[in-house]
Amino acid sequence: MQSTFDRVKLVAIGCDHAGFEYKTVLVDFLKEKGWQVKDFGTNNADSVDYPDYAHPVANSVETGESGWGILICGSANGVAITANKHQGIRAAICWQSEVARLAREHNNANIICIPARFVSTPAAEEMVNIFVSTAFEGGRHEKRVVKMACS
C-alpha cells in the first residue's frame, strides 16, 4: 500500500525547548537519509509554548504539504494532544521501536511524537527510521482508523 510517506519527500518537524537538541540531531539524520525537512522550530533551548510549534507541523501534514511529521517535547504528551486536535492527524507518542512500528502498521500514524526526557537520541533516530519505513497494514485496521474521525 503506497502512503503519503512514499509520495511526498518533505517531513515537517517541530519541538519545544526540551526537544531542541533532539530536533537538531534528527534534522541532520533525515537529511543524510535524503529527506527534505521543513523545520518549524524552536531554534534554541529557551522556554517556549509547544502548541506554537505543534500546530504548524500538524497543519503541514494535514494539508499534504509534508508527507509526515515529527514532534518532540519533554514527555511528548503536549505535542501529541495538540497535534491530535487536527482532524487529519494521527499523532503517536513513541518511546521504543516496537511502538513506532505499531503506530504505523495498526494506526496509520502520520506524526511521531518523541519524549526527549525519556529516550536517547540513538533511540529517537531508530524510531524515526522505523516509523518512516513501516507501511500501514490496512485490512482489519482500516475500519478502526476510519472510526477515529469525529465527523
From TrEMBL:
D-ribulose 5-phosphate binds at D16, H17, G74, S75, A76, N77, G78, N107, R117, R140, R144. The active site is at C73, H106. Keywords: Isomerase. The keyword Isomerase applies. SUPFAM superfamilies: Ribose/Galactose isomerase RpiB/AlsB (SSF89623). The keyword Protease does not apply. Belongs to the LacAB/RpiB family. This is Ribose 5-phosphate isomerase B.
